[in-house]
Amino acid sequence: MVRTIFAQPDAETVHEQHRRIVGRLETRFPEADALLDEAATDLLAFTGFSKEHWRQLWSNNSLKRLNKEIRRRTDIVGIFPDRAAIVRLVGAVLAEQNDEWAVARRYMSAESITKALADAVDEPEQVMAIAAAASTSGEGDALSVVVHPLTGRGPAQLRGLLADV
């Protein structure tokens, strides 16, 4: 039932379907109704982006794949001598994944990210945050504001972290 929210063709019908589902759940499942109603802003945030990005934004498959690869590599090693060894291994896996996303199999194309950043933004806080991220990243392109979903760091910061270990 909740999946139908994401299967809508445009942002307006996504919001309408969300309201319909919340209304249906009200009598039989009041706790689920309250949860969906509270989470509406976060749940429907993907509709603020262009439709071509929707699938990547509402799915966490790439994070599941990344966590599975980290788990696989740490299971092979088994016992780590110290914390720094774990950080080096996991950092290497994250750096490798970052390079793969940047060059080979993109999570989102450079053109679509640039377009999304160039689109008009209604909220002044978002404009300031994008500008601040771009100016502090040290890299001039639009991709420099993209941060890793697990670490919250950009590519240059991740490389710096690995150099410190």
Instruction: Please state roughly what percent of the residues sit in beta strands, choosing from under 5%, 5-15%, 15-25%, 25-35%, 35-45% or over 45%.
Output: under 5%
Multimerization status: single chain
Main sheet record: none
Number of DSSP E strands: 0
Q: How does the overall form come out from the CA principal axes?
A: flat
Radius of gyration: 20 Å
What is the helical fraction, as a range of percent? 55-70%
Average pLDDT for all residues: 74
N to C succession of SSEs: HHHHHHHHHH
Low-confidence stretches: 136-146
Summing up helix and strand content along with how strands pair, one would put the structural category as mainly alpha
**Total of helices:** 10
Q: End-to-end distance, in Å? A: 47 Å
3D structure, described in words:
It is a single chain. Helix 6 crosses helix 7 and helix 7 (83-104) runs antiparallel to helix 10. 67% of the residues lie in helices and 0% in strands. The protein is an all-alpha fold and 165 residues long. The chain is flat and about 55 Å long.
Topology:
Layout: H1 3-6, H2 11-28, H3 30-38, H4 40-43, H5 54-58, H6 61-77, H7 83-104, H8 110-118, H9 124-136, H10 155-164
Name a few traits of the molecule.
mainly alpha
Give a short summary of the structure.
This protein has 165 residues and is an all-alpha fold.
